[in-house]
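If it is no trouble, can you show me the amino acids of a protein and the C-alpha cells describing how it folds?
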Amino acid sequence: MNLLALAFLIPALAQPELPRAASPIDASRAAVDTIVPDVELASLDGEPVLLSSLLGPRPAVIIMSSVGCPLCRTYAPRLASIEQEFAPRGIAFVHVNVVDGESRADKAEFVRNFGLSSHYVNDSLGSARRTLRPRTTTEVYVLDRARRVVYHGAVDDQFRLGGRATKITRHYLREAISAVLSGQPVKDRATSAPGCLVDLPAPDAAPGEPFYPRIAALVQRHCADCHGRGGAGPFTISTPADIEGRAAMMAAVIDEGIMPPNHALSTGPGTGRELPAPDRDALLAWLRSARAVGDASTAPPQKDPPTTWAIGRPDIHVLAGELPVAADGPPGHQRSLTSLGLDADTWVQAIECRPVMRDSIQLALVWLLLPGEGLPTQDQPPPGGRLIATYSPGEGLVAFRPGDALRVPAGSALLTDVYSKVMGRAMTAQLRIAMKAAAPPRREVRTVLLAAPNLHLPPNSAAIEAEAALTVPHDLRLLGARPVMRWRGRTLSLDQLHPDGPEPILTLDRYEPRWLLRYTFPDEPTLAAGTRIVLRATFDNSAANPANPDSSVPVSGGFGYFDDSLMLILEYAVPLTPQSP
C-alpha cells in the first residue's frame, strides 16, 4: 500500500482547531493501532534517511518537533530526561522536525542546548506528516516492536497553550513506554496535545493572491514588531519561506483573535495593535490558499524590531534584581527595589523595558516610589499606586505625547515585579529599564490606581465577579488605561456612573493573561470631579480555564506568581503653569 493511500486510513485528530490542554480522547480519532511503514526522512545535513534505520527492531518513540514552538522548547529538557531514562532500556527515540521554514543552524542549536541525545531529523518530503497526520508539534507516538502505534498524544498534562499547571498529574508518555516494556496495555491510548498546529498537505488549495506585495506589507505592518528578525516572538515570519510550516498555526491564532496580542476590545480606545477586518481577511485567505509567492522585488522595506533602545539613547538606565530560572521547574516571581540615582527632579517622556535574556520574562510591573514612601507587603501594590510601565513579550514601550511628561523626583526608586517564563533552559531573568528625559512639559502625566480589595476566588468556580470603585477627586483628562489581571482573569469593564445608567469607558470581552497592554485615548475624554467610576471583572478558577495553574485551590489577590489581581491604572494629564517645577 502506498503512503498516500495509507494516509487516508489514519484519521486526523478530531479535536478543537487549536488544542489548548492535554486530555484523553477517543483512540479511534487518532493514529492508534496503525502500523507505521518505512518513510524517507532527511538528516540535518539534508542526506536521505530511512525511518527503519533509526528505529531498528526495538520499541520506539517518534516525537514531532519544531525549534520555534514555545511548547516544544518547554518540553525539550523533559524529553531529554525521558531519553536518558529509557534509551538504555531498549527504546529508540526519533525527533522529526515538521516545520519546513526552520534553519539547519537553529535545529542544531536546539539539539545542543537541550541535550537531546537521540536522532533529530527533518520531514523534508512531508512523508511523516502524510503518514502519521500529526495535529501539533508536541505530539508523540509510542510504537511496539511491530511498529504498531500503541499511544499517540501529549507528553504529559502540565503545559498548555497559554498556561501551565502547578504540577503533572498524568505522565502520558512515561506511562505508555512503561506499558510497552512490561507488555501491558496502555491506559489512555490517545490524548490531545497542545502545541503549534502542523501544516498538512493540501493539494486542492486554491491559488489565491500572491504574498508580494500586499500580503508582505500586511505582515510587516502587523507582525514585524514581534516576529521580525531579533524580535520578542519565538520565530520570524518576514518571508514566505519563514511561514512555511507555520501557516496553520498563524491562521488559527488570527482567526481566534489571539494575535496580534489583544484582550478582545469591544468598547473603548485601542492599543494600536488591532487588526482591521480587511487586513485580517486578506491574511487568512493567503494562509489558507496555495500561498503563491509573487515578485519578491516588490517587497516593502524590511521592518525589524530595533536592536537598540527604541527610545534612542537612554538618559536613565537601571537593572532590576536577578531572578534565577530553572530549565524545567516552576516559574518564579521577584519583587525588587532599584534606586534611580537621581539628585534632581527629572521629567521623563518615554520608558522602555526589556529583558536582559530573551525569553526569560513573561510579565513585569514597574512602580515608581517617591522618597520617603515605605515598602509594601508582598500582597499589596505600592502606597502611591504609580504603575508607570509594564513588560510582556513585544509590549514594553510607553511614550507620552509631545508636551506631556512624567515627573520623577530626586531620590525616587523603582519597585519591580518580575515574573519569569520557563523556556527549557536555565537562565537568569532580569529586567532592563530605560527612560528618556524631556524638557519641562506643558502637562504633567499622573496615574491613579483602581484595585479590588480582598480579592478571593473559590476553588473550582467559574464566572466569579469582582469590582473596584473610585470617586474622581478632580477633573481628569484621560490619556491611557492599563488593566492588570492574572491567569484567571476573563473579562473586564470600566464604566462611569450616571443617574440614567453606566457609560462604558473600556470593555474587554476576553482578557488574555500573557499580555499587559496599554490602551490610549486619542480624544482625551474628561472625567469631571465627583464622577463615580467602577471597574468590574470576571474570573474563572475552574479546570475549564487552560491558563489556570490549579483549579483545586482558593486564590487570593497578591503579587506572587500564582496569585491573581484586579487592577487598572488610569493615566491622566494635569496642565502646568509657567511657575510649576
